[in-house]
Write a structure and sequence with these properties.
SIR2/SIRT2 'Small Domain', 6-stranded parallel sheet
Length: 242
């Protein structure tokens, strides 16, 4: 069975994506050979992206965050665009993403569960005032609110829990799906990786450049780039005219 066959037969697709979905938009992933976690820093990225490091060393955190975590010039790729088309056509129920770049919404997707938050939402730790990502990018040192408080990105750092409401919505969507497409993720980040266990539908599809622990349980496995795999599908599957 091909991916096109599965998509054509499905009406409640849920897409569960990781960093590999955005690499074709020029955003590096984390764990591949040339990923962020393989680069050399005085302090490991996993430490710099922890809550304890943020509160203990905010200036150093924001220096790293601005350099590596704010890809504001990135644009949606073929995967983001195709998923938004499926949603408009009534084929896709939701996107569940581990990414924080906001590219699914930029492409037009509306029901997106951002498990790890978003760079586009930032709030003062003192008064809760909202600030856009551009405020963080254009500030110097520790970004501060007009009240003097530190403005923190709404991203889930290591040592922080996932948002309960987001988790509940993602789990409900996955449990109700007839097809789950897992893409661009190594399935090694928990608890997000465990969300696949809630799927009870017919077709489980994996699209990832490298093998994952899920490969042997899937209806279809494609070891290729996510944008290329989705972008190559016939346009009629998106409710478009050729």
């Amino acid at each position: 069975m091909t991916l096109a066959d599965i998509v054509e037969r499905s009406s409640r697709i849920v897409f569960f994506g990781g960093a590999g979905v955005s690499t074709e938009s020029g955003i590096p992933d984390f764990r591949s050979a040339d990923g962020l976690y393989r680069q050399k820093y005085d302090v490991p990225p996993e430490v710099m992206l922890s809550a304890s490091y943020f509160y203990a060393h905010p200036a150093q955190f924001f220096r790293f965050y601005r350099e590596k975590m704010l890809p504001l010039a990135a644009k949606p790729n073929a995967a983001h665009i195709r998923l938004a088309q499926w949603e408009r056509a009534g084929k896709l129920s939701a996107v569940v993403t581990q990414n924080i770049d906001g590219l699914h919404q930029a492409a037009g997707s509306r029901r997106v569960y951002e498990l790890h938050g978003s760079i586009h939402r930032n709030h003062c730790l003192s008064c809760k005032k909202f600030y856009p990502a551009s405020f963080i990018a254009e500030s110097r040192g520790i970004p501060r609110c007009s009240c003097g408080g530190i403005v923190k990105p709404d991203v889930v750092l290591y040592e922080e829990p996932l948002d309960g409401e987001t988790v509940e919505g993602a789990v409900r969507a996955i449990a109700a799906a007839d097809t789950l497409i897992v893409a661009g993720t190594s399935l090694t980040v928990y608890p997000a990786a465990s969300f696949v266990d809630y799927f009870r539908g017919e077709n489980l599809v994996l699209i990832n450049r490298d093998p994952t622990p899920l490969d042997g349980k899937c209806t279809l496995v494609l070891h290729e780039k996510v944008g290329e795999a989705l972008g190559a599908l016939p346009s009629y599957l998106s409710g478009e005219t050729a």
